[in-house]
Amino acid sequence: MATAEASAQEQAPTTDLPIRSGSDSTDFDIVATYHSLLKSDPDLTKPVAAINALIALLNTVPSTTVYETLDIIKAHSERLKASVENPIPLAAGTDLFNQYIMSSLKQQDGSFDAARNGVAEAGWRYVSEGSTVLTHGASRSVTGLLARAARSRPGKFKVVYVRDEWRPKESDRVVGELRQLGIPTAEIDLASVAHVMASLRKVSMVIVGAEVVTQSGGIISRMGSYQIAKLAKSSNIPFYVAGETHKFSRIFLHDQNKLGFKQSVLDFKLEGSSSHLENPVDFTPPDLISQLITENGVKLPSYVVEQILDIYGSLNG
Which stretches does UniProt call biased (Polar residues) (predicted)? Predict the structure, then answer.
């Protein structure tokens, strides 16, 4: 059962909710609240920030019935998703929130941290003594897993970190954190991944995070993840995805051309520099993923469908 369900309060839904004090819901800025939450807590994932923004909304809603409240939540969920170029991570959170509001979903403080810690506990033993882990991006789940491995095997494994040329400060931060944990860390650019994997044979496994884990067990993640996964497959290197179950989504993707939102990485010009997308993502299909490392254990990609059916009762709402 997914973490959100495990932490839901098991009580029968009622047609009445307590009257909440505060301004009318039309005065509540769901978009500003969402961005404020992300800014104030860098550890929040986008689905969790969306859920917390909706919880903040409920504290301002003077409605008296479940049906009225659900209508307000739905309207603000759509408004929030329409405010960003890539609404899929937000949809994972808003869908989950809407599904469980009927049973008064309440996430306890620290429950998402507990899920991330669960990922670390489930996956750290995969980082064996003498191994070298290649990673990419800035996933808190991945960093937590490596930190947990470092506590039990200090100085006994290495990390190859693939830098993001568009996010030098972020790359510096992640590398600094890994080295501060006592993990010997080498930095390479994305163009060097194939050489490091195939020629030097120094990589034991790849561990990356995800913004969204799709219904098929594939992932939407930082641009470059798909490329790394294909290279890992060709070199017979295991490709693991570390992520909490609240990132599971009912969205079903087939390829890079149908991400569910508009994203164009090509900007053809005759003069000047091409523009660069902010936070571009790609889709890594499940056949390139060895296993998912979740707070519920290490699972095959097919586990996602089982969880979605368990939570929602259907795959397409």
Answer: 1-14
